[in-house]
Amino acid sequence: MHIRNGLIGILALALLGGCGTMDKRADGDVAVEDRSAAAGAEGMEGAQARGLGADGDLRGLALDDPSSPLATRTIYFEFDSSEVAAADRELVSAHARYLAANPQQQVVLEGHADERGSREYNIGLGDRRAQSVRRMLEFQGVTPDQIRTVSYGEEKPAVEGHDEQAWSRNRRVEIVYMDQ
């Protein structure tokens, strides 16, 4: 009987001790870091997020800059043509310089055509357009393993419509960076 009463007393003390610990946490013994001063509302203005790639390189600086030529990633073509227009050659060169300087970067060149022509013809035309851009990139130092091409033909129009304004927006190659 004395042993039983002793065990009950020890158990009661253990419970009270546990409650005492819980009260300490409730009273604010847990350290709370106040980050509101470091990231105040005025500090958020102009903030930019940057990240590290898998290899630890800083990414996104040139590709995310809206004033950079790299922000433009669509090259338009004349009707039934796969020749890159003279006005767009500097744009392709800017992407070539970036890719040559960043050999870990990879792009997909997506070739498109307007709705005129048969499905097979438009797939071929989209492919020829993507290959034209590919050749220009490779000629300027981009390695073949950095570039993939795909032709969507008329399947993914940028603009819906059945007039020259819509067709001119759909005759294009889009440069898609793989880690963007």
The CATH level-2 architecture of the domain at 67-176 is identified as: 2-Layer Sandwich
Secondary-structure class: alpha+beta
Distance between the termini: 75 Å
Unreliable spans: 15-25, 36-53
Helix content: 40-55%
How is this structure best described in words?
- The chain is α+β, with helices and mostly antiparallel strands and 180 residues long.
- It has a domain at 67-176: 2-Layer Sandwich (60s Ribosomal Protein L30, Chain: A).
- 43% of the residues lie in helices and 14% in strands.
- It contains six helices and six strands; from the N terminus they run ααββαβαβαβαβ.
- Strands 3-6-4-5 form a four-stranded mixed β-sheet.
- The termini are far apart.
- This is Peptidoglycan-associated lipoprotein.
- Keywords: Cell cycle, Cell division, Cell outer membrane, Lipoprotein, Membrane, Palmitate, Signal.
- It comes from Thiohalobacter thiocyanaticus.
